[in-house]
Amino acid sequence: MFDINLDLIKKYDRPGPRYTSYPTAPHFTETFTPKKYLDEIIRTNNEADTPALSLYYHLPFCDTLCYFCGCNMIITRNRDRIKEYIKYLKNEIYLLRTYLKADRKVVQLHWGGGTPTHLNPDEINDLISFINKNFEIAIGAEQGCEIDPRGLTKEHLESLRYGGFNRISMGVQDFNETVQKAVNRIQPEAMTREVVSWISELGFQSLNLDLMYGLPFQTIDNFEKTVDATIDISPDRIAVFNYAHVPWMKKHMNLINPEDLPSAEDKLQILKMTIEKLTNAGYDFIGMDHFAKPTDELSIAQREKKLYRNFQGYSTNAGTDLYGMGITSISQVGSCYVQNKKKEKEFFDSLNEQTLPIERGVYLTEDDILRRHVITKVMCDFELAFKSVEAKFGIEFNNYFNSSLAALQEFVDDNLVILTNDQLEVTQMGRLLIRNIAMSFDGYIERKEDKARYSRTV
Protein backbone atom coordinates (compact mmCIF):
# COMPACT_ATOMS: atom_id res chain seq x y z
CA MET A 1 0.00 0.00 0.00
CA PHE A 2 1.39 3.40 -1.06
CA ASP A 3 1.00 5.61 2.01
CA ILE A 4 0.43 9.17 0.74
CA ASN A 5 0.69 12.17 3.07
CA LEU A 6 -1.24 15.00 1.41
CA ASP A 7 0.00 17.55 3.94
CA LEU A 8 3.58 16.95 2.78
CA ILE A 9 2.55 17.21 -0.86
CA LYS A 10 0.93 20.58 -0.10
CA LYS A 11 4.03 21.71 1.75
CA TYR A 12 6.38 20.98 -1.15
CA ASP A 13 4.09 21.98 -4.02
CA ARG A 14 6.33 24.69 -5.47
CA PRO A 15 7.86 25.51 -8.88
CA GLY A 16 10.71 23.26 -9.97
CA PRO A 17 12.36 21.66 -13.03
CA ARG A 18 11.43 18.28 -14.48
CA TYR A 19 15.13 17.57 -15.08
CA THR A 20 14.92 16.14 -18.58
CA SER A 21 18.26 17.93 -18.83
CA TYR A 22 20.77 19.62 -16.55
CA PRO A 23 21.27 22.52 -16.95
CA THR A 24 17.58 22.86 -17.80
CA ALA A 25 16.30 24.47 -21.00
CA PRO A 26 15.89 28.03 -19.57
CA HIS A 27 19.68 28.15 -19.30
CA PHE A 28 20.22 27.54 -23.01
CA THR A 29 21.44 30.70 -24.76
CA GLU A 30 21.39 32.04 -28.31
CA THR A 31 25.14 32.66 -28.13
CA PHE A 32 25.51 28.93 -28.76
CA THR A 33 25.85 28.94 -32.56
CA PRO A 34 25.38 26.21 -35.19
CA LYS A 35 29.18 26.28 -35.64
CA LYS A 36 29.70 25.36 -31.99
CA TYR A 37 27.22 22.50 -32.36
CA LEU A 38 28.91 21.25 -35.51
CA ASP A 39 32.28 21.32 -33.77
CA GLU A 40 30.88 19.16 -30.97
CA ILE A 41 29.30 16.75 -33.47
CA ILE A 42 32.61 16.34 -35.27
CA ARG A 43 34.55 16.00 -32.01
CA THR A 44 32.32 13.26 -30.63
CA ASN A 45 32.09 11.53 -33.99
CA ASN A 46 35.89 11.24 -34.16
CA GLU A 47 36.23 9.59 -30.76
CA ALA A 48 37.59 6.06 -30.76
CA ASP A 49 34.51 4.63 -29.07
CA THR A 50 31.57 6.64 -30.35
CA PRO A 51 28.26 6.15 -28.53
CA ALA A 52 25.19 4.67 -30.17
CA LEU A 53 22.49 7.00 -31.48
CA SER A 54 19.07 7.97 -30.18
CA LEU A 55 16.95 9.85 -32.72
CA TYR A 56 13.92 12.06 -32.11
CA TYR A 57 11.73 13.47 -34.89
CA HIS A 58 9.28 16.26 -34.11
CA LEU A 59 6.12 16.15 -36.24
CA PRO A 60 4.19 19.12 -34.88
CA PHE A 61 0.92 18.95 -36.80
CA CYS A 62 -2.51 18.25 -35.31
CA ASP A 63 -5.96 18.16 -36.84
CA THR A 64 -7.73 19.91 -33.95
CA LEU A 65 -6.74 21.95 -30.92
CA CYS A 66 -6.82 20.32 -27.47
CA TYR A 67 -7.29 23.22 -25.07
CA PHE A 68 -5.04 21.66 -22.40
CA CYS A 69 -2.08 21.09 -24.70
CA GLY A 70 1.33 22.38 -23.63
CA CYS A 71 3.25 20.86 -26.55
CA ASN A 72 4.91 22.61 -29.46
CA MET A 73 2.24 21.94 -32.07
CA ILE A 74 0.67 23.42 -35.21
CA ILE A 75 -3.03 23.05 -36.01
CA THR A 76 -3.48 22.58 -39.75
CA ARG A 77 -5.32 20.54 -42.36
CA ASN A 78 -3.17 21.94 -45.15
CA ARG A 79 -1.50 18.85 -46.63
CA ASP A 80 0.87 20.96 -48.72
CA ARG A 81 2.19 22.59 -45.55
CA ILE A 82 2.82 19.16 -44.05
CA LYS A 83 4.58 17.96 -47.20
CA GLU A 84 6.84 21.01 -47.21
CA TYR A 85 7.78 20.41 -43.59
CA ILE A 86 8.63 16.76 -44.29
CA LYS A 87 10.78 17.86 -47.22
CA TYR A 88 12.84 20.08 -44.92
CA LEU A 89 12.91 17.45 -42.19
CA LYS A 90 14.51 15.13 -44.75
CA ASN A 91 16.99 17.88 -45.59
CA GLU A 92 17.97 18.08 -41.93
CA ILE A 93 18.33 14.30 -41.74
CA TYR A 94 20.55 14.27 -44.80
CA LEU A 95 22.66 17.22 -43.59
CA LEU A 96 23.19 15.70 -40.17
CA ARG A 97 23.93 12.30 -41.65
CA THR A 98 26.93 13.70 -43.57
CA TYR A 99 28.73 14.44 -40.28
CA LEU A 100 28.17 11.05 -38.63
CA LYS A 101 30.02 7.77 -39.09
CA ALA A 102 28.02 5.32 -41.16
CA ASP A 103 28.54 2.52 -38.63
CA ARG A 104 26.96 4.34 -35.68
CA LYS A 105 23.83 2.33 -34.96
CA VAL A 106 20.49 3.68 -33.79
CA VAL A 107 19.31 1.95 -30.61
CA GLN A 108 16.37 4.29 -29.89
CA LEU A 109 14.06 6.21 -32.20
CA HIS A 110 10.97 8.22 -31.37
CA TRP A 111 8.39 10.25 -33.28
CA GLY A 112 6.65 12.90 -31.19
CA GLY A 113 4.45 15.87 -31.76
CA GLY A 114 1.96 17.22 -32.25
CA THR A 115 0.46 14.11 -33.72
CA PRO A 116 2.81 12.04 -35.91
CA THR A 117 -0.17 10.06 -37.18
CA HIS A 118 -1.60 13.25 -38.65
CA LEU A 119 0.64 12.12 -41.50
CA ASN A 120 -1.19 9.71 -43.78
CA PRO A 121 0.06 6.11 -44.15
CA ASP A 122 1.90 6.88 -47.40
CA GLU A 123 3.72 9.81 -45.77
CA ILE A 124 4.62 7.59 -42.82
CA ASN A 125 5.99 4.90 -45.15
CA ASP A 126 7.99 7.47 -47.08
CA LEU A 127 9.56 9.06 -43.99
CA ILE A 128 10.41 5.67 -42.47
CA SER A 129 12.08 4.63 -45.72
CA PHE A 130 14.14 7.82 -45.85
CA ILE A 131 15.28 7.46 -42.24
CA ASN A 132 16.23 3.83 -42.75
CA LYS A 133 18.27 4.72 -45.84
CA ASN A 134 20.26 7.27 -43.87
CA PHE A 135 20.70 5.50 -40.54
CA GLU A 136 21.42 1.92 -39.55
CA ILE A 137 18.74 0.81 -37.10
CA ALA A 138 20.10 -1.76 -34.64
CA ILE A 139 18.32 -5.09 -34.34
CA GLY A 140 15.91 -4.83 -31.43
CA ALA A 141 16.08 -1.03 -31.32
CA GLU A 142 13.37 0.71 -29.32
CA GLN A 143 11.18 2.52 -31.86
CA GLY A 144 8.25 4.47 -30.46
CA CYS A 145 5.56 6.73 -31.88
CA GLU A 146 2.89 8.94 -30.32
CA ILE A 147 -0.57 8.48 -31.83
CA ASP A 148 -4.01 10.05 -31.61
CA PRO A 149 -6.88 7.54 -32.06
CA ARG A 150 -9.11 10.26 -33.49
CA GLY A 151 -8.81 9.97 -37.24
CA LEU A 152 -6.46 7.01 -36.92
CA THR A 153 -6.92 4.03 -39.20
CA LYS A 154 -5.51 0.54 -38.89
CA GLU A 155 -3.42 1.37 -41.96
CA HIS A 156 -1.57 4.04 -39.96
CA LEU A 157 -0.55 1.43 -37.41
CA GLU A 158 0.34 -1.10 -40.11
CA SER A 159 2.68 1.43 -41.69
CA LEU A 160 4.37 2.02 -38.34
CA ARG A 161 4.60 -1.66 -37.41
CA TYR A 162 5.89 -2.88 -40.77
CA GLY A 163 8.33 0.03 -40.73
CA GLY A 164 9.94 -1.27 -37.55
CA PHE A 165 8.08 0.57 -34.78
CA ASN A 166 7.46 -1.57 -31.70
CA ARG A 167 6.15 0.92 -29.11
CA ILE A 168 3.06 3.12 -29.10
CA SER A 169 2.10 5.99 -26.79
CA MET A 170 -1.47 7.23 -26.89
CA GLY A 171 -3.20 10.13 -25.18
CA VAL A 172 -6.42 9.45 -23.27
CA GLN A 173 -6.47 12.21 -20.62
CA ASP A 174 -9.98 11.35 -19.39
CA PHE A 175 -12.81 9.13 -20.66
CA ASN A 176 -15.51 11.35 -19.18
CA GLU A 177 -17.56 12.97 -21.96
CA THR A 178 -18.15 16.23 -20.08
CA VAL A 179 -14.44 16.65 -19.47
CA GLN A 180 -13.65 15.79 -23.10
CA LYS A 181 -16.06 18.43 -24.39
CA ALA A 182 -14.57 21.05 -22.08
CA VAL A 183 -11.07 20.48 -23.48
CA ASN A 184 -12.15 19.91 -27.11
CA ARG A 185 -10.95 16.33 -27.29
CA ILE A 186 -13.81 13.95 -28.01
CA GLN A 187 -12.36 10.45 -27.73
CA PRO A 188 -14.91 7.80 -26.71
CA GLU A 189 -13.61 4.89 -24.67
CA ALA A 190 -14.80 2.49 -27.37
CA MET A 191 -12.56 4.26 -29.90
CA THR A 192 -9.55 3.91 -27.63
CA ARG A 193 -10.25 0.25 -26.98
CA GLU A 194 -10.56 -0.47 -30.70
CA VAL A 195 -7.16 1.12 -31.36
CA VAL A 196 -5.68 -0.87 -28.47
CA SER A 197 -6.99 -4.06 -30.08
CA TRP A 198 -5.28 -3.11 -33.36
CA ILE A 199 -2.03 -2.44 -31.50
CA SER A 200 -2.21 -5.88 -29.89
CA GLU A 201 -3.17 -7.59 -33.14
CA LEU A 202 -0.24 -6.04 -35.01
CA GLY A 203 2.25 -7.20 -32.40
CA PHE A 204 3.55 -3.97 -30.92
CA GLN A 205 5.68 -4.79 -27.88
CA SER A 206 4.59 -1.96 -25.60
CA LEU A 207 1.70 0.44 -25.10
CA ASN A 208 1.69 3.58 -22.97
CA LEU A 209 -1.47 5.53 -22.15
CA ASP A 210 -1.40 9.15 -20.97
CA LEU A 211 -3.89 10.43 -18.39
CA MET A 212 -4.20 13.98 -17.10
CA TYR A 213 -5.64 15.24 -13.82
CA GLY A 214 -6.70 18.78 -13.02
CA LEU A 215 -8.87 19.24 -16.13
CA PRO A 216 -12.23 21.06 -16.04
CA PHE A 217 -15.16 19.22 -14.44
CA GLN A 218 -12.97 16.42 -13.14
CA THR A 219 -13.97 14.95 -9.79
CA ILE A 220 -12.52 12.14 -7.74
CA ASP A 221 -15.49 9.92 -8.63
CA ASN A 222 -15.53 10.49 -12.39
CA PHE A 223 -11.74 10.30 -12.77
CA GLU A 224 -11.74 7.08 -10.75
CA LYS A 225 -13.83 5.55 -13.53
CA THR A 226 -11.18 6.61 -16.06
CA VAL A 227 -8.45 5.05 -13.93
CA ASP A 228 -10.45 1.84 -13.56
CA ALA A 229 -11.00 1.67 -17.32
CA THR A 230 -7.31 2.27 -17.95
CA ILE A 231 -6.34 -0.53 -15.57
CA ASP A 232 -8.82 -2.79 -17.38
CA ILE A 233 -7.23 -1.93 -20.75
CA SER A 234 -3.93 -2.97 -19.11
CA PRO A 235 -1.28 -0.94 -20.94
CA ASP A 236 2.38 -1.70 -20.18
CA ARG A 237 2.97 1.88 -19.03
CA ILE A 238 0.78 4.70 -17.77
CA ALA A 239 1.74 8.36 -17.49
CA VAL A 240 -0.39 10.58 -15.25
CA PHE A 241 0.27 14.25 -15.93
CA ASN A 242 -0.78 17.28 -13.94
CA TYR A 243 -2.59 19.90 -16.00
CA ALA A 244 -0.86 23.25 -15.57
CA HIS A 245 -3.19 26.12 -16.44
CA VAL A 246 -0.82 28.74 -17.88
CA PRO A 247 -2.84 30.87 -20.35
CA TRP A 248 -0.18 33.62 -20.20
CA MET A 249 2.21 31.11 -21.82
CA LYS A 250 -0.25 29.11 -23.94
CA LYS A 251 -2.95 31.50 -25.15
CA HIS A 252 -5.33 28.73 -26.23
CA MET A 253 -5.70 27.75 -22.57
CA ASN A 254 -7.88 30.85 -22.23
CA LEU A 255 -10.55 28.66 -23.85
CA ILE A 256 -10.73 26.79 -20.54
CA ASN A 257 -12.80 28.51 -17.87
CA PRO A 258 -10.66 28.51 -14.69
CA GLU A 259 -13.83 28.32 -12.60
CA ASP A 260 -14.44 24.85 -14.08
CA LEU A 261 -11.11 23.50 -12.85
CA PRO A 262 -11.03 21.30 -9.74
CA SER A 263 -9.77 22.94 -6.58
CA ALA A 264 -6.21 22.41 -5.40
CA GLU A 265 -7.52 20.12 -2.66
CA ASP A 266 -9.56 18.06 -5.14
CA LYS A 267 -6.55 17.75 -7.44
CA LEU A 268 -4.51 16.30 -4.60
CA GLN A 269 -7.28 13.85 -3.73
CA ILE A 270 -7.48 12.81 -7.39
CA LEU A 271 -3.72 12.28 -7.47
CA LYS A 272 -3.80 10.25 -4.25
CA MET A 273 -6.61 8.04 -5.54
CA THR A 274 -4.85 7.50 -8.86
CA ILE A 275 -1.51 6.50 -7.34
CA GLU A 276 -3.17 4.15 -4.87
CA LYS A 277 -5.27 2.47 -7.54
CA LEU A 278 -2.41 2.00 -10.00
CA THR A 279 0.03 0.66 -7.43
CA ASN A 280 -2.64 -1.62 -5.93
CA ALA A 281 -3.27 -2.91 -9.46
CA GLY A 282 0.37 -4.00 -9.65
CA TYR A 283 2.00 -1.09 -11.46
CA ASP A 284 5.40 0.06 -10.23
CA PHE A 285 5.81 3.77 -9.57
CA ILE A 286 8.80 4.65 -11.72
CA GLY A 287 8.97 8.27 -10.67
CA MET A 288 7.58 11.66 -11.65
CA ASP A 289 4.37 10.87 -13.57
CA HIS A 290 5.20 7.34 -14.73
CA PHE A 291 3.98 3.86 -13.84
CA ALA A 292 4.93 0.54 -15.44
CA LYS A 293 4.19 -3.13 -15.03
CA PRO A 294 6.92 -5.06 -13.17
CA THR A 295 7.75 -6.91 -16.39
CA ASP A 296 8.27 -3.68 -18.36
CA GLU A 297 11.78 -2.61 -19.34
CA LEU A 298 11.47 0.58 -17.27
CA SER A 299 10.71 -1.37 -14.11
CA ILE A 300 13.49 -3.85 -14.80
CA ALA A 301 15.97 -1.05 -15.52
CA GLN A 302 15.03 0.71 -12.29
CA ARG A 303 15.53 -2.44 -10.23
CA GLU A 304 18.90 -3.01 -11.92
CA LYS A 305 19.94 0.66 -11.45
CA LYS A 306 20.15 1.17 -15.22
CA LEU A 307 17.33 3.68 -15.65
CA TYR A 308 18.15 6.97 -17.34
CA ARG A 309 16.40 10.27 -17.98
CA ASN A 310 16.55 12.63 -20.95
CA PHE A 311 14.26 14.77 -23.10
CA GLN A 312 12.18 11.72 -23.94
CA GLY A 313 11.54 11.10 -20.23
CA TYR A 314 12.61 7.91 -18.50
CA SER A 315 14.68 5.67 -20.74
CA THR A 316 16.67 2.45 -20.73
CA ASN A 317 19.23 3.78 -23.22
CA ALA A 318 21.87 5.64 -21.24
CA GLY A 319 25.10 6.75 -22.87
CA THR A 320 23.71 7.54 -26.31
CA ASP A 321 24.02 10.73 -28.31
CA LEU A 322 20.50 12.09 -28.72
CA TYR A 323 19.85 13.93 -31.99
CA GLY A 324 16.54 15.79 -32.20
CA MET A 325 15.26 16.79 -35.64
CA GLY A 326 12.41 19.09 -36.63
CA ILE A 327 11.33 22.42 -35.16
CA THR A 328 11.87 22.90 -31.39
CA SER A 329 13.65 19.54 -31.06
CA ILE A 330 16.37 19.26 -28.42
CA SER A 331 19.61 17.31 -28.84
CA GLN A 332 22.08 16.05 -26.26
CA VAL A 333 25.45 15.47 -27.90
CA GLY A 334 28.78 15.15 -26.10
CA SER A 335 29.08 18.04 -23.66
CA CYS A 336 26.28 20.20 -25.05
CA TYR A 337 22.54 20.57 -25.37
CA VAL A 338 21.02 22.39 -28.33
CA GLN A 339 17.50 23.31 -29.44
CA ASN A 340 16.32 23.74 -33.02
CA LYS A 341 14.60 26.79 -34.46
CA LYS A 342 11.03 27.10 -33.22
CA LYS A 343 9.41 28.61 -36.32
CA GLU A 344 9.00 26.88 -39.64
CA LYS A 345 10.39 29.72 -41.77
CA GLU A 346 13.56 30.07 -39.71
CA PHE A 347 13.96 26.29 -39.73
CA PHE A 348 13.57 26.21 -43.51
CA ASP A 349 15.89 29.19 -44.07
CA SER A 350 18.73 27.56 -42.13
CA LEU A 351 18.45 24.35 -44.10
CA ASN A 352 18.31 26.25 -47.39
CA GLU A 353 21.70 27.64 -46.38
CA GLN A 354 22.93 24.13 -45.53
CA THR A 355 23.24 25.17 -41.88
CA LEU A 356 22.11 23.13 -38.89
CA PRO A 357 18.89 24.86 -37.71
CA ILE A 358 20.06 25.69 -34.18
CA GLU A 359 18.42 28.46 -32.14
CA ARG A 360 20.14 28.08 -28.79
CA GLY A 361 22.18 25.74 -26.65
CA VAL A 362 24.63 25.35 -23.79
CA TYR A 363 28.02 23.80 -23.08
CA LEU A 364 28.20 21.79 -19.88
CA THR A 365 30.89 22.70 -17.37
CA GLU A 366 32.60 20.06 -15.23
CA ASP A 367 30.30 21.08 -12.39
CA ASP A 368 27.26 20.69 -14.66
CA ILE A 369 28.32 17.17 -15.66
CA LEU A 370 28.84 16.18 -12.04
CA ARG A 371 25.52 17.62 -10.88
CA ARG A 372 23.69 16.09 -13.85
CA HIS A 373 25.02 12.67 -12.84
CA VAL A 374 23.91 13.12 -9.23
CA ILE A 375 20.46 14.45 -10.12
CA THR A 376 19.92 11.66 -12.65
CA LYS A 377 20.88 8.95 -10.16
CA VAL A 378 18.63 10.41 -7.47
CA MET A 379 15.65 10.68 -9.84
CA CYS A 380 16.10 7.25 -11.42
CA ASP A 381 17.46 5.07 -8.60
CA PHE A 382 15.91 6.88 -5.60
CA GLU A 383 19.26 6.44 -3.88
CA LEU A 384 22.82 7.67 -4.19
CA ALA A 385 26.05 6.09 -2.96
CA PHE A 386 28.48 8.95 -2.29
CA LYS A 387 31.60 6.82 -2.76
CA SER A 388 30.57 5.93 -6.33
CA VAL A 389 30.36 9.64 -7.13
CA GLU A 390 33.71 10.26 -5.48
CA ALA A 391 35.34 7.48 -7.51
CA LYS A 392 33.85 8.70 -10.78
CA PHE A 393 34.60 12.41 -10.38
CA GLY A 394 37.52 12.56 -7.96
CA ILE A 395 35.78 14.72 -5.34
CA GLU A 396 35.07 14.51 -1.62
CA PHE A 397 31.29 14.33 -1.69
CA ASN A 398 30.42 15.81 1.69
CA ASN A 399 32.65 18.83 1.08
CA TYR A 400 31.61 19.44 -2.53
CA PHE A 401 27.90 19.13 -1.78
CA ASN A 402 27.95 20.64 1.69
CA SER A 403 25.16 23.14 0.92
CA SER A 404 23.12 20.45 -0.85
CA LEU A 405 23.30 18.15 2.15
CA ALA A 406 22.20 21.01 4.38
CA ALA A 407 19.23 21.65 2.07
CA LEU A 408 18.25 17.97 2.35
CA GLN A 409 17.78 18.22 6.11
CA GLU A 410 14.21 19.44 5.64
CA PHE A 411 13.42 16.26 3.70
CA VAL A 412 15.14 14.14 6.35
CA ASP A 413 13.01 15.77 9.05
CA ASP A 414 9.86 14.95 7.08
CA ASN A 415 10.96 11.32 6.53
CA LEU A 416 11.24 11.81 2.77
CA VAL A 417 14.97 11.09 2.69
CA ILE A 418 17.21 8.85 4.80
CA LEU A 419 20.68 10.38 4.92
CA THR A 420 23.90 8.87 6.26
CA ASN A 421 27.54 9.88 5.91
CA ASP A 422 27.90 7.87 2.72
CA GLN A 423 24.44 7.41 1.23
CA LEU A 424 21.13 9.04 0.38
CA GLU A 425 17.95 6.98 0.14
CA VAL A 426 14.55 8.33 -0.90
CA THR A 427 11.60 6.91 1.03
CA GLN A 428 8.39 5.74 -0.61
CA MET A 429 6.66 9.04 0.16
CA GLY A 430 9.77 10.92 -0.95
CA ARG A 431 9.44 9.42 -4.43
CA LEU A 432 6.37 11.56 -5.01
CA LEU A 433 8.46 14.66 -4.31
CA ILE A 434 11.59 13.59 -6.17
CA ARG A 435 11.77 16.85 -8.15
CA ASN A 436 12.00 18.81 -4.90
CA ILE A 437 14.69 16.51 -3.55
CA ALA A 438 16.71 16.73 -6.78
CA MET A 439 16.57 20.52 -6.59
CA SER A 440 18.86 20.34 -3.56
CA PHE A 441 21.71 19.46 -5.95
CA ASP A 442 20.86 22.10 -8.57
CA GLY A 443 23.54 24.78 -8.87
CA TYR A 444 21.20 27.21 -10.63
CA ILE A 445 17.86 26.94 -8.86
CA GLU A 446 19.01 28.99 -5.89
CA ARG A 447 18.56 32.15 -7.94
CA LYS A 448 15.10 33.70 -7.55
CA GLU A 449 14.82 34.53 -11.25
CA ASP A 450 15.04 30.82 -12.08
CA LYS A 451 12.25 29.67 -9.78
CA ALA A 452 9.58 31.50 -11.79
CA ARG A 453 10.44 29.56 -14.96
CA TYR A 454 9.18 26.18 -13.88
CA SER A 455 5.88 24.38 -13.40
CA ARG A 456 4.81 23.32 -9.93
CA THR A 457 6.26 20.03 -8.72
CA VAL A 458 2.92 18.41 -7.88
Summarize the structure.
This protein has 458 residues and is an alpha/beta fold. It has 19 helices and 19 strands.
Describe the structure using short key phrases.
458 residues, alpha/beta, pyruvate-formate lyase- activating enzyme, Arc Repressor Mutant, subunit A, 2 domains, nine-stranded mixed beta sheet, three-stranded antiparallel beta sheet, 19 helices, 19 strands, 39% helix
List the topology elements:
Elements: H1 6-11, H2 34-45, E1 53-58, E2 61-62, E3 74-75, H3 79-97, E4 105-112, H4 121-134, E5 136-147, H5 154-162, E6 167-173, H6 177-182, H7 189-201, E7 206-213, H8 220-233, E8 237-242, H9 264-280, E9 284-287, E10 290-292, H10 297-303, E11 308-310, E12 313-315, E13 321-325, E14 330-333, E15 336-340, H11 344-352, E16 358-363, H12 366-381, E17 383-385, H13 386-393, H14 397-400, H15 402-407, H16 409-413, E18 417-419, E19 423-426, H17 428-431, H18 434-438, H19 448-451
Parallel strand pairs: 1-4, 1-13, 2-3, 4-5, 5-6, 6-7, 7-8
Antiparallel strand pairs: 8-10, 9-10, 11-12, 14-15, 15-16, 17-19, 18-19
Helix pairs in contact: 3-4, 3-11, 4-5, 8-9
